[in-house]
Amino acid sequence: MRIMVINPNTSAAMTTLIGGCARAVAGQGTTVVAVSPSMGPASIESHYDEALAVPGILDEIRNGEPADAYVLACFGDPGLDAAREIARGPVVGIAEAAMRTATYVARSFSVVTTLGRTTGRAQELVDRYGVRAYCRSVRACEVPVLELETDPEAKKRILAECRRAVEQDGAESIVLGCAGMADLCAELSGELGVPVIDGVTAGVTIVEGLVRLGVSTSRVGEYAPPPRKQYQGALEGFAL
Amino acid sequence: MRIMVINPNTSAAMTTLIGGCARAVAGQGTTVVAVSPSMGPASIESHYDEALAVPGILDEIRNGEPADAYVLACFGDPGLDAAREIARGPVVGIAEAAMRTATYVARSFSVVTTLGRTTGRAQELVDRYGVRAYCRSVRACEVPVLELETDPEAKKRILAECRRAVEQDGAESIVLGCAGMADLCAELSGELGVPVIDGVTAGVTIVEGLVRLGVSTSRVGEYAPPPRKQYQGALEGFAL
Amino acid sequence: MRIMVINPNTSAAMTTLIGGCARAVAGQGTTVVAVSPSMGPASIESHYDEALAVPGILDEIRNGEPADAYVLACFGDPGLDAAREIARGPVVGIAEAAMRTATYVARSFSVVTTLGRTTGRAQELVDRYGVRAYCRSVRACEVPVLELETDPEAKKRILAECRRAVEQDGAESIVLGCAGMADLCAELSGELGVPVIDGVTAGVTIVEGLVRLGVSTSRVGEYAPPPRKQYQGALEGFAL
Amino acid sequence: MRIMVINPNTSAAMTTLIGGCARAVAGQGTTVVAVSPSMGPASIESHYDEALAVPGILDEIRNGEPADAYVLACFGDPGLDAAREIARGPVVGIAEAAMRTATYVARSFSVVTTLGRTTGRAQELVDRYGVRAYCRSVRACEVPVLELETDPEAKKRILAECRRAVEQDGAESIVLGCAGMADLCAELSGELGVPVIDGVTAGVTIVEGLVRLGVSTSRVGEYAPPPRKQYQGALEGFAL
Amino acid sequence: MRIMVINPNTSAAMTTLIGGCARAVAGQGTTVVAVSPSMGPASIESHYDEALAVPGILDEIRNGEPADAYVLACFGDPGLDAAREIARGPVVGIAEAAMRTATYVARSFSVVTTLGRTTGRAQELVDRYGVRAYCRSVRACEVPVLELETDPEAKKRILAECRRAVEQDGAESIVLGCAGMADLCAELSGELGVPVIDGVTAGVTIVEGLVRLGVSTSRVGEYAPPPRKQYQGALEGFAL
Amino acid sequence: MRIMVINPNTSAAMTTLIGGCARAVAGQGTTVVAVSPSMGPASIESHYDEALAVPGILDEIRNGEPADAYVLACFGDPGLDAAREIARGPVVGIAEAAMRTATYVARSFSVVTTLGRTTGRAQELVDRYGVRAYCRSVRACEVPVLELETDPEAKKRILAECRRAVEQDGAESIVLGCAGMADLCAELSGELGVPVIDGVTAGVTIVEGLVRLGVSTSRVGEYAPPPRKQYQGALEGFAL
């Protein structure tokens, strides 16, 4: 089984980190390919960034190496519906993976993410994925995505927000709100005494499960293959 | 006052039609500029099309003629959040414009749109815009977007779905689910005996109102200007 | 075009203030008539006041000067459904006008109103108008309606609540919860740095838009003209 | 114990019918006083009628015979909030009484009411009272309120709608949507084989229970006594 | 009329207390029988306890003295659906009884219960019973169930949480979250100045009302009598 | 890794079937143990059956072979919360497993279950698991649980209901509503052309994933280990 994990930003360091975390939980016989698109933003911290990350994701799915399943490794789950329409196998976003996984092990979770300006998108996904009743809060540590690995204070600030979520908001588990935090689960969980869920690793286990169940995206209705048509200008190559 | 109406597909005929409808309702002293992007899909009939229409929309807002307000003339309201982050004036999507306008004149509406595969997106917007309690149904006439003007049966099929919405679903008003239907309001309303709302024209009146109120998109929180950063590859020019 | 703005309380000073604000945003060629009923409470600060303000509103609509559209200038939107059944043109309440307008320019708003005892009604309207996901809080400045213009501290207290809404509740815009605050938008917005929406002015732009769209209240279903019948006693004259 | 049942329309025959049904379920030592206001509509079949029934209701509560508790015997629960602000004892509307009582004996109910135009108000109350998940449908038999007793076909048409609710909508109980149907419970239940709930009788048992519990309307917050103020014109006498 | 009040834990002292409170509100001619099962947990403070209290409850209903109606006197309403399937008369749980009763006398309530770990179940019932919009908070005084009567500080801690609910959360009434608090209503209400509702007494008035209305659990659909079948092992005797 | 799949009814044939399906999707190195309790109902087709299946489930978890994770193989997810409080590893119910898995591969699903009387419980779980927006319908084939394997018409009737769900309700995937249907996924999916999800197999992949992620039930808050206490009578042995 071959799983493609797509880091939708263009940071190679983050792609490496994500790939390593994904491989650590993948089953025997599963190959994880971690990629990042050839076009798009250096990091995703706004609706503008997110919208412009989508063409690169779709390009990887159409033109990248063949895979049996896909994980979209950005917590906004950018382009998820479009990806499902065109991918050969199942596609899972890390926000849905992490939020739904948390509901199996606790009656509540809080999301701890990077910048405050992205909490609105996280809240929107809480509603879309039907986990409003489980979500205690969405908290931001105000560390930019690309400084997660370089800022020596980053881990401390993440931990501090997680602790506030547990102690002040009553969260019984934590969902990490950025693929760049994927390597922190065990350490944070040890400090906090509650389950800490990262969507990259959760997503890998979910798509592995889907492949083993023999289940892929429905080809009927909303996710049916898109009608073919012309594309113009810089996006001409996206015509199906 | 100058309002830019963006038809996110690349059909010049539809842009002309939309521009005419917009001008017909605009107030004295308001100039309507109807444009379509230089890149993107010929029509929007899937999540894939919608995602790939967004770069062209954002490009028009950043690099097109200056305007006081913007109307996004595709019923999926593609790129609405991203557009709000970067536009100089208020931005309204035609789905939100039409659905909210309907709630001022009836306790219920049905959406009548083009292809059945897009009804899921319309339903998602019904939830996002908080009009679930008003929405009786989302119906599709199964006429592709670009055949709305060319198929001699199109108007008849749209009317038939509207009638089913009124008679079978109890809709007290109709929301037209495609910018390409903007010219049909008066005729349909005459046939049906209920208000028929099109989002292009509704959107023009709404953004005119916002400009007259002196109100534009909040620069605080979710719609604050995006952090600057590098963009790679074919999207390099989108760096702010 | 002729718009009737009905101040449902009997304070002439407030009617004058409201009329002035309404005229300031009305388009060229639009006449605004601001009236207050001949019967009813001096101000509306309870369900009791609100219920008893409705006959006067309905009387103005039936027996007042003819108009093309109506704005009900009390934040409880009293008698809105009844008014729609009998009015010749579209009717908009200022709570629905303000709340829905806020959703075009921000992902969140807080309502700042007069007395704490009216926040329950505002919360009920938040649900009715489907903007629960946008509403961060409903805050009261505890200034009675008729002291808004006379209490020299009033503006300061309103500003203080607005600031708490922005800073503590994360509101990205403010909805003013009383017609008597209609003249404060610009000043408050300047102080706060976020959009501040008043329903009187928002309502005027909305009904102007509806008239220009050629759309009025549906005559089918819930808002169809009421069945004729006898009325007894002091309300005898209300028989249709 | 003295319970006032207020029939908000001015039909003496309906008041007599309602009073008789109420007395049949009242406990030993409970006196039921059935009244109808001196002002207002002959029957309530629109938002307009409902709004104009409220002054008469409030007048009965303020100036009628003293009572320990009140039942508002119109399925729109008109003036309920206002009545709670001023009444000496607890006040219950028949829609809330019937809908909540049904939830104790079945996982679902349908409302069967008079005219189709009133189903919107019933749906709104379904939401307000939090019973959306229990409500299968709101059906109208299209018999006007004042013909319930005189139309020989009325009972048959009500029964037919109840049967459709049970057989087609899966309703496990029936809520009767008009005080004028209060005498039909036993007969309909016998025919249908499911519980049939009328709000007048349910309301009497509920307010009796509240009085026995020693519980009345909270005097804190939303239902606190209204601020005193002047009233003008025909409503002058309503000043508290 | 004979009402069985089932205390689902095996504490005889609590059964006596509950029985006394129930009798104090029962009408003339009503006999209250308070029982506790012969099997099950000493108190109910976890999902585990609650699940294992259910067989004893069902055993009382099947094999105990005949009764016209039943009140389940544990705030988790354990086994309510199963009890309705097999009981001869209507069955009400004290959480639903108290929460719904509170909505007749206030626009909001807070639940004050025993241990924090049970607040999740209370929140789940808030949703099931459709009273989310009324519920300001669920607060725990952290007194174990069996210490409610013996801990001299218990009443003080309950009062303190009630006061926080009123002052900090804006609760306009209080719902007591444990049958063991049934005797505290009057005293707490006197101290707090808001209605305080206990589900045992509320439940007694509700089932008395249902019996007087002649209404019992629907035998159609979800609460129809269970299909007969074999039971094995220690539960063999539960075969119907 | 060792996964215990608990069939909560006492049918050995069904336990064998379930075990086989579970093993077919388990990863290399995973041992599946399929068990059924020593006490409880022959099948689960009512709230009564479900409540009485729980002691047997809890007994297996406490006293059965040690396991790293648990799957509860009854579509009502009986005892799920209680099981989580006491189990050594994560516990997943097949309704939550199937419903959430369906959301990864389609925007909508319908549940096809056994008896109509159990659809209410399924609807309740749809709400609890937050998948209301995805659920098109819950349909019953009216085949009793224990006849699924013996009735030669069973498969045909299940297929017929699935087809109605797809064609009439617009379901884009199917969730099978009984563990006894676990062996039908591939065949039904082949016939229908949409994904068909069974909770037993989905549940096995989910708990395997949780174990690989190193995540188990939170020990904080609602799922913390229950307080110790005495149990009486036939359930004495359940004291922790």
**Poorly predicted spans of chain A:** none
User: How much helix is in the residues of chain A?
Assistant: 40-55%
CATH topology of the largest domain in chain A: Rossmann fold
The ordered H/E elements of chain A are EHEEHEHEHEHEHEHEHE
Please report the total strand number of chain A as a whole number: 10
Q: How would you describe this protein?
A:
Six copies of one chain form a homohexamer. The first copy, chain A, is an alpha/beta fold and 240 residues long. Chain A has two domains: 131 residues, Rossmann fold (3-Layer(aba) Sandwich); 105 residues, Rossmann fold. In chain A, 41% of the residues lie in helices and 15% in strands. Chain A has eight helices and ten strands. The first copy, chain A, has a four-stranded parallel β-sheet with strand order 2-1-4-5, sandwiched between helices. The model of chain A has no long low-confidence stretch (mean pLDDT 96). Chains E and F meet through strand 3, helix 2, helix 3, helix 5 and strand 10 of E and strand 3, helix 2, helix 3, helix 5 and strand 10 of F.
